[in-house]
TrEMBL record:
It comes from Rhizobium grahamii CCGE 502. It is a multi-pass membrane protein. Belongs to the binding-protein-dependent transport system permease family. SUPFAM superfamilies: MetI-like. This is Binding-protein-dependent transport system inner membrane protein. It comes from the Bacteria. InterPro entries: ABC_transporter_permease (IPR051393), MetI-like (IPR000515), MetI-like_sf (IPR035906). The chain crosses the membrane at residues 30-54, 91-112, 119-140, 171-194, 227-255, 275-298. Keywords: Cell membrane, Membrane, Plasmid, Transmembrane, Transmembrane helix, Transport.
Length: 312
């Protein structure tokens, strides 16, 4: 028995030492992660919880007291004509921007993927993504000026009448959509280029042997199917970025003329920081967050389903 006890002690001592070492490392990890966790709570999680709470109240800057209104702010969104206008304008903006920016980005990626000057073209198309959008919007304001802008000067050379790009209610939103397309094409192009670089050359050789001798056939049989995961990701990201349009509206039109360019995020900005209706603005922010989260979850679900289908 004494021998067995000695053996047990000899085995337990290293195990206990390893266990204590793991606990010490876990405590050290928690201590090291604590500053980042506190910043995360203070700058992200805490404000998000506060916004969620305020969305159920009638909070307003400058007024004393907060009253709980339940889902009143969310119900108001369904009947508010101003929010309906902004939602309709945002949907129209997305319908115009998303397919054109995705198609154009894919076309540019296909054209420059094998070009000798691909690095130059990538840089030129990516500049709108890397540059500050507020500065770019200011430059576009000068370009679209009704009398001094380069756009109307070009139309004059063609013999066309000048266009009030930013002050005509029937044109303003489409002018902003063109700027959005120009800004998103470079982002989508980079993603498609990354997807094209992962396609094995052997697939193109096999397709050529099977009779896919033209570029369109190779694209239809090889490139497009292999780009499906990237296309899904690009589509979701483009939709989110298009729904998030704010800067160009704030700089160029401020929602006008006649609310023709009023979008959801600018409505949130006006409600919260101009009219100080914090509760209603918080409800708009929460609804937008839920929408973006749902899109992201759908994208992840479809990607996982495609990956599991490939494994099986």
């Amino acid at each position: 028995m004494a021998v067995l006890d000695n053996v047990s002690l000899a085995v337990a001592a290293p195990v206990r030492s390893i266990y204590q070492s793991d606990r010490a490392q876990a405590r050290a990890g928690l201590v090291l992660a604590l500053p980042a966790l506190l910043l995360l709570l203070a700058l992200l999680i805490g404000p998000a919880i506060l916004v969620l709470f305020l969305s159920f109240t009638d909070a307003s800057l400058g007024l004393v007291g907060i009253r709980f209104v339940g889902l009143g702010n969310y119900g108001r969104m369904l009947t508010d004509p101003g929010f309906s206008t902004s939602l309709r304008n945002t949907a129209l903006y997305v319908i115009v921007v998303v397919p054109i920016s995705i198609g154009w980005g894919l076309l540019v990626a296909l054209l420059i993927s094998r070009s000798t000057f691909s690095a130059f073209y990538r840089t030129a198309h990516f500049i709108p993504v890397a540059a500050t959008l507020v500065a770019l919007a200011t430059a576009w304001e000068a370009i679209l000026h009704p009398s001094l802008g380069a756009a109307n000067a070009f139309l004059h050379l063609l013999g066309a009448s000048p266009v009030r790009f930013l002050s005509d209610p029937s044109v303003a939103l489409y002018a902003l959509a063109c700027i959005g397309i120009w800004q998103l094409v470079g982002f989508n192009m980079i993603l498609f280029l990354a997807g094209l670089s992962t396609i094995p050359e052997e697939l193109y050789e096999a397709a050529a042997i099977d009779g896919a001798d033209s570029g369109f056939k190779r694209f239809r049989l090889v490139t497009w199917p292999m780009l499906a995961p990237v296309t899904l990701f690009v589509t979701v990201m483009t939709v989110i970025r298009a729904f998030s349009v704010f800067e160009i509206v704030a700089v160029l039109t401020q929602g006008g003329p006649m609310k023709s360019t009023m979008v959801v995020l600018y409505t949130f900005y006006e409600e919260g920081f101009r009219f100080f209706r914090v509760g209603y603005a918080s409800a708009i922010a929460v609804s937008f967050f839920v929408f973006v989260t749902m899109l992201s979850l759908i994208q992840m679900r479809l990607s996982d389903r495609r990956a599991s289908g490939k494994k099986t």
